[in-house]
Amino acid sequence: MPPRASRACRSRRSFSFILAAALATAPAAAGDAVFGTFTLDAAQSSGGERCAVMTLEDLGGGKFRYDAVRIDAGGATVRQDGIFAFDGGEHPDGAGGTLAFLRIDDARYATVSKGAVRSTAMRTLSDDGATLTESEDGTSDDDAFRAVRLFTRGAGVCDGDPARPK
Questions:
Q1: Superfamily assignment of 33-153 in CATH?
Q2: How far is CA 25 from CA 15, 31, 53, in A?
Q3: Residue 132: which residues within 8 A CB-CB, separation 6 or more?
């Protein structure tokens, strides 16, 4: 009969097993970092918006609420709001069009917008989760555009958005 491992040895193995299990599940937990509120850094962005705030709120069950407001240089406001999933399916965006979200990995997801503006965007979260970079290609009024926007994590308010308090 082989000798029994000491209590200390069994404790170290148990701890190692728990640590390995925790590390194995870390990527799934890190994936939650895409949720939150992000505010446009207009000085570091192209695309013409003077303000933009977007929030992704995890509702559980694979669903989330997306609420975004963008105000362009001329003061026109576009608001998108709805319940979505990272399933690639088209969902009403609250602005007369549709949005589709597709999760690429823990730090990236793609969106496809079909409405007055038709576009495809890739959103990438920084390693520290503090910034979100959006690279978007599309058409608006039959004019092609490309925009790269930098968002910082944290609540923000767009002046001139009648739906948000100042």
A1: Calycin beta-barrel core domain (2.40.128.20)
A2: 15, 10, 31
A3: 34, 38, 123, 124, 125, 126, 150, 151, 152, 153
13-60: pLDDT as tens digits: 433 333 233 333 233 334 489 999 999 999 999 988 999 999 999 999
Contact assessment for residue 124 and residue 132, using Cβ atoms and an 8 Å cutoff: yes
- Let me know: does 109 contact 117? Beta carbons within 8 Å: no
Residue 6 φ then ψ, to 5°: -70, 160
What backbone torsions phi and psi does residue 140 show, to the nearest 5 degrees?
Answer: -140, 125
Between vectors from CA 81 to CA 140 and to CA 123, what angle results, nearest 5°? 65
Q: Name the one residue in this structure whose structure tokens are 């965006």.
A: 93
Q: Please return the burial class of 94, using the count of CB atoms within 10 Å of its CB with bins 0-12, 13-18 and 19+.
A: middle
Residue 10 corresponds to which tokens in the numbers above? Answer: 């069994």
For residue 51, what is the enclosing H or E element?
Answer: strand 49-60
The pair of three-digit structure tokens given for residue 84, joined into one six-digit string: 């979505």
The model carries a pTM of: 0.76
Q: Residue length, the chain?
A: 166
List the chain domain ranges: 33-153
DSSP code for 41: -
